[in-house]
Amino acid sequence: MKFKLWVTLTILFFIYSFYVYIYSSSEKTPVQPTASVLSGWQVWQNKNCHTCHQLYGLGGYMGPDLTNIASDPTRGSDAYMKAFMKNGTDKMPDLHLTEEEMNSLVSFLRWVDKSGKSRVGKESVHWTGTYIF
Fold it and tell me: pTM above 0.70?
């Protein structure tokens, strides 16, 4: 009985190890951020964008998750993103960003978009900023 258990566990260990090896070797090499991306990251931090918006599901819930905004077919154009940054909305204030800051922030959001997927679905966020489980 002990021998069968030992053999079973050994086989499961090798199967699991093979799975981990295959999974880890298929990951893409991360794209190194450019100077514009790093500048956009500084704008993101200095303007406290994370207090209302999320990246990778982390951050505030008053605004939408912006992890994959750049690949959104309706909201991902540079002009669309800059219009919100420049004018704000009823919930988002005008942050008085310069053209250079907006370009850097767009570069940062495009870089983030290529690096992963958001974990928070639109159906999980209530308009009050609370998370619905």
Answer: no
